[in-house]
Design a protein that fits this description.
The chain is mainly beta and 113 residues long. It has one domain. It has 1 helix and 8 strands. The structure holds zinc ion.
Length: 113
């Protein structure tokens, strides 16, 4: 099982984990075995659900059509789908974390509602 498969397995249980370097105190995403910054071995850590929207756009990928957003959580960038009208910079939470067709499928909602 590769590293990303392990992330997907955990995501099926509703939690998002990423590689985390204890030395740099930084998350490393996409998940890796070694830190991007100091090359130390990293471990898995749960990503905090509270973040904010960095960017949004529209996807035309078949089966993935719709508005998506790039969210920042614990300093890493995660792509998710948004349902409501949301603004760049807005605070969001990962409402649902699941796996659809072998991919991460995360729904962001505004944290103010
Ligand atoms: Zn490091």
């Amino acid at each position: 099982m590769n590293l990303f498969d392990s992330v997907l397995e955990i995501a099926k249980g509703g939690e998002l984990v990423s590689s985390y370097c204890e030395k740099c105190e930084k998350y490393v995403w996409p998940p890796k075995y070694y830190c991007n910054y100091c090359n130390s071995k990293v471990l898995f850590k749960i990503v905090k659900r509270e973040g904010r929207i960095l960017a949004k756009g529209y996807s035309n990928i078949p089966g993935k059509k719709g508005i998506f957003a790039v969210g920042e959580f614990n300093g890493i960038r995660i792509i998710g789908t948004i349902k409501d009208k949301m603004m760049v910079g807005e605070s969001i939470i990962m409402q649902e974390i699941r796996v659809t067709n072998g991919r991460l499928d995360i729904i962001f909602v505004s944290s103010s509602t």
